[in-house]
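Table S2 (continued). Query chain:
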Amino acid sequence: MNNSVANTARVLGAGLRALLVLTLVCGVIYPLLVTGVAQLAFPDKANGSAIKSGGKVVGSALIGQTYNLPKKNPADPDEPPLPDLRWFQPRPSHGLGTNTLNTGYQLLVSGATNLSADNEKLIAQVEQAKEAVVRDNSTPGYPVPPSDVPADAVTSSGSGLDPEISPAYAKLQIRRVAEKNHLDVTEVEALVTQHTHPRTLGFLGEPGVNVLELNVALGALARG
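Corresponding output:
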């Protein structure tokens, strides 16, 4: 009996010591080490790739956000959001919260629709989105042909939080953005070129334009 109690006590003691050591190593020392290395090696990425405008954090380079006008009736949940056409617009998404450049944004949910390519609801959404892109981006003397609307202008990404758009979609918006901000088209074209990221390592993925980074630069240019 005494031997049994003693053996049990030794096993429990060994288990508790192992628990304490593993908790210290895995729960304290390792996280502090990894955090310290991350802060020293790449602090920007370790802190969420935050982007600032006017000294304030306005979002992350890793998460997309919307650029809509304030609602006329904020208490009405059914009032559809209208895009603020002064800014470059991101991909469509049902997973983004509302936001403007100068306020913190509210992240709601993320995810795709999971609708098949021949689903009538998805087809209607794409057609409506294309009509809106053509309407919003056509300027006097420069109508946007529907055939020029790229796929990412009318479809959302798998997560619904894609922070980038294609160079083609960014270029399609240049004249509208220049007109709304009273800027020269060549100035806005230069901004898009500066913020177009090439393929990773020259062959992975596709070129992209980070919408938040581009709009922060646009805001600085518009303010002069």
